[in-house]
Amino acid sequence: MRENQSSVSEFLLLGLPIQPEEQGMYYALFLAMYLTTLLGNLLIILLIRLDSRLHTPMYFFLSHLALTDICFSSVTAPKMLTNMLMQDQSISYAGCICQAYFFLFFADLDSFLLTSMAYDRYVAICHPLHYTTVMSQSLCFLFIIVSWVLSSASALVHTLLLARLSFCGDNTIHHFFCDLSALLKLSSSDTTINQLVILTVGVVVITVPLMCILVSYGLIGATILRRPSVKGICKAFSTCGSHLSVVFLYYGAIIGLYSVPSSNNNNDQDVIVSVLYTVVTPMLNPFIYSLRNRDMKGALGNILMG
User: pTM for the complete prediction?
Assistant: First the structure.
């Protein structure tokens, strides 16, 4: 059945552009980063669950973002670490397609969650008197459901179009995971439709959310400037600073990965930026939110002090 779709039964992942003698050092580094991602984001979820003061829309979205970051990093990091340790570069056709699907799904989900958090901050700062009415529990759940539906639909469209392609020649992927663009370069089929869908769906899951985030923070900035006060600026910075840091990290990596042209013969740049996007950013999120947020530090202090 699989042979009808592709003559390739497995792919070879070239992995990271590092020298063999440096493999052990980088393995230890990436293992530490992955474990930090898991523990840091699990800690955020735990703190939000245990501290009743964090049962607000902002932290509701943050707990979902932390869970998404755990899953997003887990799609690529374990396989990358296994390949580095075992020196086995192979991944099955089915495994590759599944990895591509879940990578796209959690990447898109991240984008929608960041947009929901930006809207939450907009309502909190620009319409504080109506905050509890507007950001109701039902609206928060609706945002989450819509985010999951749109993300799964987007990833499914890409994956179904990918599964219909033929891979008859080279099966070496110049990456450490089954990246969609890397797979399209390997295909012996016409990928025009795939490329068109990438551009179209990319507008829905990346460009529109980014524009919504920028508009939200533009309106927040305008509101603060209309009523300038040290207290107001400090409050806005404390609640928005951490979120903006994550937004810049997330979208900066995407723009660097997909907007800056790279040579077809040298994919090292894409691989390095992908490491930043898939491993580093999910690891930094807990530090950004815990170090820049008084509520999170307070909740952690309460837990540690019993």
Answer: 0.89
